[in-house]
Amino acid sequence: MRGGMRIIGIDPGNAVTGFGIVDGAAGSFAYVDAGTIRAPRNASAPARLSNIYQHLIEVIARHRPDAMSLERNFTALNVQSAFRLGEARAIAMLAADRHGLELYEYTPTQVKMTIAGFGAADKAQVKAMVRRTLRMAPTVELADDAADALAIATCHLFQARMTPRRNLGARATNVGAAGEAVE
Fold it and tell me: Which parts of 74-160 are beta strand (E)?
């Protein structure tokens, strides 16, 4: 189904980044693709980020989404983890900008509430609801990071369908020429 909007959802991570592609039109959502991008274990930070970027632009070129939905930062247990997550998020934002995609951000609680109806849903509950919402065959293997990315994409489709475009609960972000966020 490609009659409506195609969204790429990104669950950013320095070691593993999940991506999920979902089509949505008139209340009907369809699974297109999902997977993970794994950084080589002993790679330097620049090499890890380059790996994420290269794979993301390949996925974007292959599936040609209309927009990107990205998980917004959460409070990490330590500062270094927060920095690493921020770097992976920035790489996803760069890939979106380079392909002219609008970027929408959702908190983990917003995604869980939208997908599972409970803001503190665990990974198994979210994965089960993603499979159900997207009518995925049980034979489709789905890593946790890929399921989270599908949930993020589906969350945006629900939000876009339920809310007028200007008042989306997500924050649409455009990046200016100097790289600063312009809202």
Answer: 102-106
